[in-house]
Specification:
Blueprint: H1 20-40, H2 46-53, H3 57-63, H4 67-89, H5 94-115, H6 124-146, H7 156-166, H8 174-186
Length: about 190
């Protein structure tokens, strides 16, 4: 299991507020922004995001002086949540841990797809985020392989690319997306 101390630190410029109420507002803005960007794209209204988070536009700008800061915070927040999710599932049986984490990865991939073009993928922060995500998920995959539950001729990168590709398709609903992911993962699972 990857502990918080051994998890690679994400090199980002986003500073979370220290006060509990300010932290709640910050987190609410990230959730609202993630949902808005995923459904409406990167040009989603910042006023609507603030309203959805239950805060004023001044609070949004105090935390995120410009749209790019908010986009970056959403992306890096998703990576951080993926790393935490890997820690939370690490004690499950190998295949269950991997597939539970991959379901969370699908949510991340959908958000990433919505904001991908707005991210500067050449920065050290972006590279560190990608490395942190791989460091969190790779042990889950390797454990499933070692347990004989995942094919050994598949790499973790192969798996993530396959699952990412699934997010490009439109789905009728969450149930269909989950069903398609299960079908795809059946190709990775050793029976």
């Amino acid at each position: 299991m990857v502990s918080e101390q051994s998890r690679p630190a994400l090199q980002v410029d986003v500073r979370r507020p220290q006060r509990a109420d300010a932290r709640r507002n910050f987190d609410a803005l990230l959730v609202a922004a993630r949902d808005a960007f995923a459904t409406k794209g990167v040009e989603a209204s910042l006023e609507d995001i603030a309203r959805q988070a239950g805060v004023g536009i001044g609070t949004l700008y105090r935390n995120f002086p410009n749209r790019q800061d908010l986009l970056n915070a959403v992306y890096f927040g998703e990576i951080e949540e993926l790393c935490i999710a890997a820690e939370k599932v690490a004690d499950l049986p190998p295949w269950d841990a991997l597939t539970t984490w991959l379901h969370r990865f699908v949510e991340y991939a959908a958000t990433k797809r919505a904001i991908w073009e707005s991210l500067n993928r050449e920065t050290e922060s972006f590279k560190a985020a990608r490395a942190a995500m791989y460091a969190a998920g790779t042990p889950l995959f390797e454990r499933a392989q070692e347990a004989g539950e995942a094919r050994k001729d598949v790499s973790f990168d192969d798996l993530l690319r396959m699952v990412s590709g699934l997010t490009a398709a439109g789905f009728v609903d969450q149930a269909q997306r989950d069903r398609v992911l299960t079908i795809a993962l059946d190709g990775v699972r050793v029976r």
